[in-house]
Amino acid sequence: MAMIELGFGRQNFHPLKRKSSLLLKLIAVVFAVLLFCEFLIYYLAIFQCNWPEVKTTASDGEQTTREPVLKAMFLADTHLLGEFLGHWLDKLRREWQMERAFQTALWLLQPEVVFILGDIFDEGKWSTPEAWADDVERFQKMFRHPSHVQLKVVAGNHDIGFHYEMNTYKVERFEKVFSSERLFSWKGINFVMVNSVALNGDGCGICSETEAELIEVSHRLNCSREHYPLYRRSDANCSGEDAAPAEERDIPFKENYDVLSREASQKLLWWLQPRLVLSGHTHSACEVHHGGRVPELSVPSFSWRNRNNPSFIMGSITPTDYTLSKCYLPREDVVLIIYCGVVGFLVVLTLTHFGLLASPFLSGLNLLGKRKTR
């Protein structure tokens, strides 16, 4: 009787062992794919990016000096979803992508300063105080950074509204979190951060309050060039959005709505005399030249929600020179294709394990055996 019971137990043991073996295989494959698609792929993509080379020596008459190089990252249009338009899965997926991309870039590239050029939030222009606090908390978690890294943020139309829906409350709410400074200087390089939404009042081109503020910044820049000859060619880098006339873009936008008016653009160029303009808002890369000499580069969106292939700009900048390069993040379609391929593989593996689908390997052996017997 004991022998019969022992034999019955052994018969049940083999199917259980087979099921455990299948489960372990499935868990191992799923874990490996998640590890690659959610962590390692960001390192693989950003590891290929390098800071561009820039000339570091400057000659002033008979004296030659070695200039410090500032490593700056430029992002744009993160569009963190709010409580109204954002589905929870959309939030989770896109915000995880930006968090992993940003944290990986900080670790691998070690930038000294990071600029985010507008549209940090998607619903800042109408969010309630409670929703705004939640959005800010999520942003600070995603874009956390060491204390030695400077993070500079410019307001966009989704943060405070277009000029016709912007008000003092929204501007002050934004500046309370992200500061209201317009002129930022480091290593002898001046950056002017311009919120172009405030430059486009109805019928006024540039409103008087904003105009007065920009004129003050212009005076400070001119004094810097006059009293510090080393920085004479260190014109301001104007970081903002839409700082170009519509006629000079290769993407059609409505003037005074998607881009600044010609009048406002010309005033900015005359006051600040920049050597480089970096802007957001378009979600795409676009390069134009103002007056044939001042380049403007539109920085693509950093989020999968706006682009299949997000990217950011890396700049090696000295007081007299600069070089830019683009760093691409993982493509969303590649990640989705990997996931779909793995799901298909796991289905085939499971069906084969239970004998519901012939193993391709065994089928091949059987076919070879039949050919040999002929």
UniProtKB/TrEMBL annotation:
It comes from the Eukaryota. One of its GO terms (cellular component) is endoplasmic reticulum-Golgi intermediate compartment membrane. It is a multi-pass membrane protein. InterPro entries: Calcineurin-like_PHP (IPR004843), Metallo-depent_PP-like (IPR029052), MPP_MPPE1 (IPR039541), PGAP5/Cdc1/Ted1 (IPR033308). It is found in: Endoplasmic reticulum-Golgi intermediate compartment membrane. GO terms for biological process: endoplasmic reticulum to Golgi vesicle-mediated transport; GPI anchor biosynthetic process. Residues 71-284 form the Calcineurin-like phosphoesterase domain. Its main location: endoplasmic reticulum. GO terms for molecular function: metal ion binding; phosphoric diester hydrolase activity. Gene3D superfamilies: 3.60.21.10. It holds the Pfam family Metallophos. The chain crosses the membrane at residues 21-45, 336-368. Keywords: ER-Golgi transport, GPI-anchor biosynthesis, Hydrolase, Manganese, Membrane, Metal-binding, Transmembrane, Transmembrane helix, Transport. Its cofactor is Mn(2+). Interacts with GPI-anchor proteins (via the GPI portion). Interacts with TMED10. Metallophosphoesterase that catalyzes the removal of a side-chain ethanolamine-phosphate (EtNP) from the second mannose of the GPI-anchor protein intermediate. Participates in the glycan remodeling steps of GPI-anchor maturation to allow an efficient transport of GPI-anchor proteins from the endoplasmic reticulum to the Golgi. Belongs to the metallophosphoesterase superfamily. MPPE1 family. This is Metallophosphoesterase 1. It comes from Homo sapiens (Human). The gene is MPPE1.
